[in-house]
Amino acid sequence: MSELYCKAETLELRRKHIGPSCKVFFAKDPIKIVRAQGQYMYDENGEKYLDCINNVAHVGHSHPDVIKAAVKQMELLNTNSRFLHDNLVQYAKRLTATLPEKLSICYFVNSGSEANDLALRLVRQYRGHQDVITLDHAYHGHVSSLIDISPYKFNQLGKEGKKEFVHVAPSPDIYRGKYREDHPDPASAYADEVKRIIEEAEKNGRKIAAFIAESMQSCGGQIIPPAGYFQKVAEYVHNAGGIFIADEVQVGFGRVGKHFWGFQLQGKDFVPDIVTMGKPIGNGHPMSCVVTTREIAEAFGASGLEYFNTFGGNPVSCAIGLSVLDIIEKEDLQGNAIRVGNYLTELLNKQQEKHPLIGDVRGIGLFVGVDLVKDQQKRTPATAEAQHIIYKLKEQRILLSADGPHRNILKFKPPMCFTMADAKLVVDQIDELLTALEEATGARTGNGKSSTAQHKRKMTNEGNSKSDCISESINHISGTACRQNNGLYTDNRAVPCKRIRT
Length: 502
Description:
The strands form four sheets. A seven-stranded mixed sheet has the order 4-10-9-8-7-5-6, sandwiched between helices. Strands 11, 12, 13, 15 and 16 form a five-stranded antiparallel sheet that branches. Strands 1-2-3-14 form a four-stranded mixed sheet. With about 500 residues, the chain is of the alpha/beta class. Helix 2 (about 65-75) packs antiparallel against helix 10 (about 315-330) and helix 11 packs parallel to helix 13. The chain contains 15 helices and 18 strands. The longest helix has 22 residues, at about 335-355.
């Protein structure tokens, strides 16, 4: 494939014309991607990278059925939703069929941020309440209304970042959160935290409009809420006159395998009032949706203010959305998420038994996190080690990201066509990297012996040199931990940590 510019020219033009806050992965040596297919991306030199990051290309990069659907419709018509068109109503019918019956009304928009912003408008119109409860470390979008309810972002702004109408509940993290795996009922304990927030807000004369949560936190560190948590939270929020918003932008459309939607992991007795969706809905095409109840939709309409979105629900977008739904079913991608996800988790669990740097492996389907720690007992986050690993994997042509509050969680959320062979390749590479790290740093295993002693390897001069190099690399990364994430480096100025959401 011919290029308009060489990599150096592309980078220079980006620096000249693109806003400096728009960062790239691996900024010291960014990758120039020129094409992609399935679960693979290719650079300008034809080098193939295994994509373990991209939950946007849900059914696989450049899927031929998606391309055909888009081209076929674009050749005929693309216009706005004020005209009647079968694609809009057919897609709304197909999409709502995947959801509980009461979630039947759709508003089509163009991104996850638009969807969550519109959800806030819906809940505030519903009863006139303003306050929002969000989870610690949550991220819900890049527009101002969503930065306000995203601790992942507003905590970077200091004390002034949190608005008075925002209330932050603890993330229901049973590994390193307030209530852990040894608690008899972490779901109730975390839900009671929300109840206390509501009671305190009401004492101060404030009214709760909504509780919003990702069905499984992504930027928060691949957090799987304990079963029953959402049910109890919804009860408290409804009693306060509020609405429950389930953000499925990251984890919807069958990624969890067992169910089409992440919130369904909580059980059949839980149904949110609003579901927002984005990223995977169009396989890379910009589209998204808010689905809610008729009661909430009618309250929104009662304001007399028309809602219109120029591109939302256009015929091309809906044709693409229909194609994605067809592919998920035709290629049994939910089944693949179960099979490959279980295999990936099994492989990672075996690595956890072997490597003291792995503190926890958690996930469902093709949404998996590996929590790296310096000490398994203290659960000290291994931030620098996580960054070292994603850089070294990049050198092996494997793209993986790290995130979470301490940026120490290796995140797996690949295209749904990810295979068992792909899973084994990545885990084998992680195994080698962890072994080298543990030997270089003298990491301790559960029995108190260092991994170096456990493996009983005699280090040659060459091996010692390699070990020293790794230690130096880790020390360097530790010193710059606040200037990088997910392979992102900023300049050397003293600024708050910047993060890429993936």
